[in-house]
Write a sequence for this structure.
């Protein structure tokens, strides 16, 4: 069943696309399909990893969010123009990003991954359970050790740098 078959078409006030779009092969089709669900005053919020974040520049392959191999698309703030071109009739803007929990965790994982030379080390060990008990203990210990650095870098990165995630807001420019 596609969304055009649903009774919700044109009735939805909010759609959150949170760290999903980078995994979708045909992102243009995804956006075009889902904006049809929005009511005249509806809003779509899209959050994606920022390929030009300070973390990505510092840690490259070991940065937490690019997740090379699983992500199909890598976004930057210029992506706002791409969304606008592919969502005609919608105003697109970047929402000032305050995803502090994402920032802290991604700094922890980026630092730990660069130390261990294993991409997404903390995430894979603690959330996905990869590697058994010993690896989870190492990941938890390492995460605790680098957390103070992450707590300092996160607000600086959000305020002065380029955040690890970008959040875009789509609003209708005219009633349809």
């Amino acid at each position: 069943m596609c969304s055009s078959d649903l009774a919700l078409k044109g009735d939805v006030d909010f759609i959150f696309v949170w760290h999903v779009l980078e995994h979708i092969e045909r992102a243009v089709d995804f956006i075009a399909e889902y904006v049809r669900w929005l009511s005249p005053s509806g809003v779509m919020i899209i959050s994606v990893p920022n390929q030009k974040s300070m973390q990505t520049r510092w840690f490259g392959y070991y940065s937490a969010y690019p997740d090379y191999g699983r992500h199909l698309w890598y976004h930057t703030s210029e992506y706002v123009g791409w969304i606008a071109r592919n969502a005609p009739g919608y105003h697109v803007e970047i929402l000032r990003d305050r995803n502090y929990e994402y920032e802290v965790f991604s700094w922890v994982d980026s630092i730990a991954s660069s130390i261990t030379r294993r991409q997404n080390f903390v995430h894979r060990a603690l959330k996905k359970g990869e590697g058994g008990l010993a690896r989870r203990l190492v990941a938890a210990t390492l995460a605790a050790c680098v957390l103070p650095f992450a707590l300092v870098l996160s607000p600086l990165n959000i305020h002065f740098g380029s955040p690890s995630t970008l959040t875009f807001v789509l609003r209708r420019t005219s009633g349809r």
In short: The chain is about 45% helix and 20% strand.
